[in-house]
Specification:
Helices cover about 35% and strands about 20% of the residues. By secondary structure, the chain is of the alpha+beta class. Pfam families: RskA_C (PF10099), RskA_N (PF22618).
C-alpha cells in the first residue's frame, strides 16, 4: 500500500473499520503524517457527535407499550437467504470490515427512531423505524467513506458545527452541537452554496440543540454550506443573513 492510498484511510481508521493488517500499517503511517493525525482527530469527534445527536432516552411508559404489543403482533417467519452467487472475485477483508462497521453504526444510530415510533400509532411504527434506519445508514456511510473530510466552525452562543463531505458518495453531513433554540415560529435552515447561489439542503429540528443531518441534494456543484433562520417549514431562498458559512474541506 503506497502513501497516497494510506491518506484515504483516515475515515475508516477513526471508525475502527480497518483490518488488523491495515490498522497496523496505518498506525505506522500516522507517526510521520501530522495531517492524517489531525484528520483522524476531527473525524473521530464527528462520529461521537453523531452518536449524541441521535441518542434519546426512552420514556418510562415505553416498556409497558411494547409488552402490550407483543401479544397482538404476529411474529414474521424466519427468512432463508438465497444462496450467494460465486463471481470469482477475491474476498477483501478490509472492504467488508468497513461495510460491517457502517451497518453497526447505522443500527445504533437508528435507535433514534424510537422517538418517532412512540408518538405514532402502532401500525405506523415499522414504517417510521425503517425510514429512520435508512437515514442513519446514509449518515454512517458518509462518515465511513475513505475520502470523508471534516470542517468545524463556530456558530452562535458558543455552538459549533461540523461539516463532513464525501465526494465519492456525492453527499455531506452537518452536525450541530449546542445550538440555541430558534425563536418561536422559526427554524434553522441549511443551504448548499453553488457558486454563490444558495440551494435548500434541509432543516434542523427546532427542539434539538444537537443534531446530525444528511444534507439534501448532491454536493458535486457546491463549495460549502450556510445556515439561516427562516419561517417554520423553511424557505425556497434565504430571507435572512447567514449565521455561518462553511467551505468543504479540500485536504
Amino acid at each position: 500500500m503506497n502513501t497516497a492510498e494510506l491518506h484515504t484511510l483516515t475515515g475508516a481508521y477513526a471508525l475502527h473499520a480497518l483490518s488488523d493488517e491495515e490498522h497496523a500499517t496505518f498506525e505506522r503511517h500516522l507517526r510521520a503524517c501530522d495531517a492524517c493525525v489531525q484528520e483522524v482527530r476531527e473525524l473521530a469527534a464527528t462520529a461521537g457527535k453523531l452518536g449524541l445527536a441521535v441518542s434519546v432516552v426512552p420514556p418510562l411508559e415505553l416498556k409497558d407499550a411494547v409488552l402490550r404489543r407483543i401479544a397482538a403482533v404476529r411474529q414474521d417467519p424466519p427468512q432463508t437467504p438465497a444462496p450467494a452467487r460465486t463471481t470469482g472475485r477475491r474476498f477483501r477483508p478490509g472492504r467488508w470490515s468497513r461495510f460491517a462497521l457502517a451497518a453497526c453504526l447505522a443500527a445504533a444510530a437508528g435507535l433514534g427512531g424510537i422517538a418517532v415510533w412512540q408518538h405514532q400509532r402502532a401500525d405506523d411504527a415499522q414504517q417510521q423505524a425503517r425510514a429512520a434506519q435508512q437515514q442513519s445508514e446514509q449518515l454512517a456511510q458518509v462518515l465511513a467513506a475513505p475520502d470523508a473530510k471534516a470542517t468545524t466552525g463556530t456558530l452562535k452562543d458558543g455552538a459549533t458545527g461540523t461539516l463532513v463531505v464525501a465526494h465519492s458518495r456525492n453527499q455531506a453531513v452537518f452536525v450541530a452541537s449546542g445550538l440555541p433554540h430558534p425563536p418561536d415560529g422559526k427554524v434553522y435552515q441549511l443551504w448548499l452554496n453553488d457558486a454563490g447561489t444558495m440551494r435548500p439542503a434541509g432543516l434542523l429540528t427546532p427542539s434539538r440543540t444537537t443534531e446530525a443531518v444528511l444534507l439534501a441534494g448532491p454536493v458535486n456543484r457546491a463549495s460549502g454550506m450556510g445556515i439561516t433562520v427562516e419561517p417554520a417549514g423553511g424557505s425556497p431562498a434565504p430571507t435572512s443573513g447567514p449565521l455561518v458559512l462553511m467551505s468543504f474541506a479540500t485536504t
